[in-house]
Amino acid sequence: MWKKGKHTWKPNPQHMGGCRWFTKDSLVSFSKAFSSKPSVLEKSLKRAERMKEACGAKCVLFLLFVQTWLVENTGHTSPGKPVLLRCRSPEKETFACWWQPGSDGGLSTNYSLYYTMEGSREDAVHECPDYKTAGLNSCYFNKTYTSLWITYTISVVAQNALGSKSSDPMFVDVAYIVQPHKPENISAELRTQDQKPYLMVKWDPPHKADTKSGWITLQYEIRLKPEKGAEWESHYAGQQKQFNVFSLHPGEVYLVQVRCKPDHGFWSEWSSTTYTEIPDYFRPRDTSVWILIAVLSVCIFLILAWTVAIKCNSIKSYLLPPVPGPKIIGFDTQLLKSGKSEDLLNALGCQGFPPTSDCEDLLVEFLEVDDSDEQKLVMNEGEDDLEGRVKSSGNKVDNDSGRGSCDSHTLLLEVSNSSRKTYAQVGGNSNNKGSVKLSRKSSTNGKLLSFEATGEKTNTWPTANSSFLLARQSSCDNISKIHREASSLGNKADMHGNTSSAQSKSKECRELHSTVSGDQKTWFADEKHAPLLPFKSVEYVEVEKLNQQSMLILKPKTEGHKSVPPEFIGQEYTKVSGVVSDRVLLLLRDTGAQGSSDTQEGKNQAVPPSLQCQVGKMVGTFPASPALDGMQLAASGYVDTAALLQSF
Amino acid sequence: MRQVSVLFLVLVCLDLEYRITSAPICAHGDAGCHLLSVSDLFDRVIQHSNRMHSLSSDLHSEFEKYFLPVRNQIGRATHKCHTSRILTPNGKENAQRTDREELTQVILRLLVSWMDPLLQFHQSVAHNEELSNFSSNKALELSDMVHELKSGVEKMAEKMQLLGIISNSLNGLFPAEASLSSSASNEARHMRDYELLRCFRRDSDKVQNYLKILKCRIVPEHGC
């Protein structure tokens, strides 16, 4: 019935049977009706229904067809059904609802929210008081419009030109839709307890939630994780506003978040993240390791100390080797202590004592007496020159070390090559220091023998009354030589005034022994006093006497005395036969030499060529007879001062 | 050994003493001590009401599952709660404007009005074979709790009246409450179970909230 005309449908007049003819005008008005409001559309539909009643089914189809065509060409429809999403109250005093709009049908659509309250009348429908505060597609109910413990029936109606759509209603009791805001002011503080760190997290409730009046009661939950960790570690904190977290890894940065929930309601969102760094700390486990190390070191130290204590001596000897004392090769200190001088000297290799023939290279040929500065016999100490060279051994302890067998602390043998000046000074002890200094100069090998005897009291020698001149050398040969020299001197200076010393000037060694006692007069001289004349050449002196000041008075020997019996050329020894009254040494004359002046008649004993140079031994060689009337000594006797030792 | 045994006996006796006399140490007449005990009472009562409310919520959700009414029908309360007659403050400001005595009175009214209906509810649940034992046990527990809470609140009110915290105007209300509750309970029989639970859940929430408000108003030191 419609003829397709030029963009219009024209009813075919031929097929129009029983239907009203629609004029073009009516069609235009009909199409206009579609674009108008739905009410208009409804009216048109009603009209179409009426027409349908009038026209029948075909007319209905026609109308539907028209409608569809119109929709396709314009794209407008009634709005879709909106959906209420949720309603939430942050503090149980206000609430808001949000919805999701449906399709708008291409037309501007209005959304309106309507609600009814329980207990009020059914038709008391209210509309949303505030569409804007809560954002788009929302409705906000402030305090005035909020009532608790009342069920709200809320629905949203979407409406556009073509229709409206209402959402499904939502039943809301504000007391049960509480979802608070996030907790605020979250602070995480690192503290230590028993050297273990823990994190104390504190927060405040959301400022809108009124917990102080008891209107809302909130429960809290915190969660934390290391910055690089994957999972959160949650802790329920109850209603308190702080929480201590103990399971921490040092040296990491932790993220902390808190959320809250009312008694019956919804959890809030997680708060903003708080970052806390846990510093590295010394774990208690490490402390126990250190304790273990300390205990082990103490044990090791104790073991070492015990080992050292046991091996003390060997360690000492290893670390600090003892300084060896000077030892004479072949010298046996035990022999010395045992008192066997023969064995000792044998051990030392002393073959003959006094030595007889092998002393050519020895020291002193003669004794030079230099009297250039003195007019008479100088009985002074002569301390100036010699003492610098001669050591005073008065304070030394007499022991064997460093000395020869004939030890003597009183006599030092000094050998020097330098000076040829010799002088003899026989000095008494004006100050209790009887010293006789004799310097011998050896022309052969330039040795100077100087002697100094100090008559001080010494430890070993009971020299209270005498002083001894003894050569102290390291070898026995020298000692024997000195003895020879001493004997020669003694020969020359003995009481006999023998001046055969000029002839006895030989290259052989002579011992020099002189015993001068401080207040004893072992030297006996003739009664004539003769000063000691200065000698320019080698001359011999003889001791005349010993004056009161314990001075030896020497006098030179004259030529007349040159007729030294040949016996004086050789080396002669005399034994000391005895000591008389502790002051006089009695010398034994040689058997073959002179027998006249021998007052010890029964004592003609050959002087044993090897005289033991030992004190103790000398005693043994002493003849037992002490009695002596005279004070004459053998001409060729020598005094071994060592023998005097025993008498004291 | 003897000394150890004597010491042990002494300790046990002390412990027993401690258990027996679990009340605060302070004697009567001490104002500070009384206030402390009021705070303790409040705490106990609030705990009790919390428990009661959580129980009622569980039961309510369980009943919803079982009966599965259409969602639209849930909201439509065919019957009002029998306690709707009791004027209760429905907002924070309203509640804070209400004075202590009235608030306490409201609480007591609510509790009293629920004692019988819950008993009936328990009986109906027990006979209902569709419901699990868990539900019937909870229903029984719920009715017991209401009784306990009501007595607790009464004691607390007496204490407060003794201390002068609230006036003595409460006593005259109780007989009136009884009449109210009886009429209300008649209405409650007609309610369906889940509606009853819904009403009770709401009222227990009210009670809890009012108690908390009271506590923070009277003894605000702890946890407010």
Automatic annotation (TrEMBL), chain A:
Location in the cell: Membrane
Domain of life: Eukaryota
Keywords from the UniProt entry: Glycoprotein, Membrane, Receptor, Signal, Transmembrane, Transmembrane helix
Annotated membrane topology: Single-pass type I membrane protein
Pfam families: EpoR_lig-bind (PF09067), fn3 (PF00041)
Region of interest: Disordered: 380-405
Domain Fibronectin type-III stretches: 81-180, 182-281
InterPro entries per the UniProt record, alphabetical: FN3_dom, FN3_sf, Growth/epo_recpt_lig-bind, Ig-like_fold
Residue stretches spanning the membrane: 289-309
SUPFAM superfamilies linked: Fibronectin type III (SSF49265)
Name of the featured protein: Prolactin receptor-like
Species whose genome carries this gene: Huso huso
Automatic annotation (TrEMBL), chain B:
Main location: secreted
InterPro entries in the record: 4_helix_cytokine-like_core, Somatotropin/Prolactin, Somatotropin_CS
Gene3D superfamilies, per database record: 1.20.1250.10
Keywords: Disulfide bond, Hormone, Secreted, Signal
Cellular location(s): Secreted
Signal peptide residue numbers: 1-22
Family the entry assigns: Belongs to the somatotropin/prolactin family.
PANTHER family found in the cross-reference section: PROLACTIN LIKE (PTHR11417:SF33), SOMATOTROPIN,PROLACTIN (PTHR11417)
Protein name, entry field: Prolactin-like
Taxonomic source organism: Huso huso (Beluga)
